[in-house]
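Usage

Read records sequentially. Each one opens with the input sequence:
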Amino acid sequence: MEMLVTWVLILAALSVTQFCFELRKLKRVEDDTVREFASGGGSGDRQDDEMLTICGDDQQCLEFDTQRLKVLYRNLFQTQEQLDMTRRKSKSDRDDILRSESAGIVDTEVLDSLQGDGDSCCPTMFYFHKNLTLQNVDKVKRPIIHIPPDYQWIPHGTCLGGGNCGGMCINEPVMLHLLTLDPVTNEPVFEAFEVPGYCSCKNIFN
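and closes with the structure output:
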């Protein structure tokens, strides 16, 4: 009612031409507001975000805003280059520790035999995979969410052998929480998964 009274006063004060101009201007403002609300932004120049399609075991596929996922789960996804940089830093730190621990060792064959993670008993080599699906701890297969070229890189440990374990080297599983798709809510959710973790020496002969 108040809006109607306002426009009656405006109509009385303005010419018909001016009134139409003001009405068109108001319509443009309303349209801009609707577009801003629908896009979730306020800049007015926001481009359409790339959509990510994720399909569950039932072949039902859903679309997600990749930019929203990256903001919500910052640093969870990495490119191959970012992963390589992280691994180089980790290897450099490990090598520094190995050098300091083996400073008194003069047998170069012993130093050269330290493979993988440098464990002298049961060395482990880590490989990073971008699994599309994995079984969670409840043995239910779930899709793993990736945003190519950014991925959830999943480490898998493999026993190299060649260590001085007095027994048997066994690959121990580790539990990781990875972003997957909830089959009930159809929303991204973290679930627990077991993957091959590291090699452990089991002295079964004593």
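Summary fields computed downstream for this record:
- The helical segments are 2-13, 16-39, 66-72, 80-101, 108-112.
- The first helix runs from residue 2 to 13.
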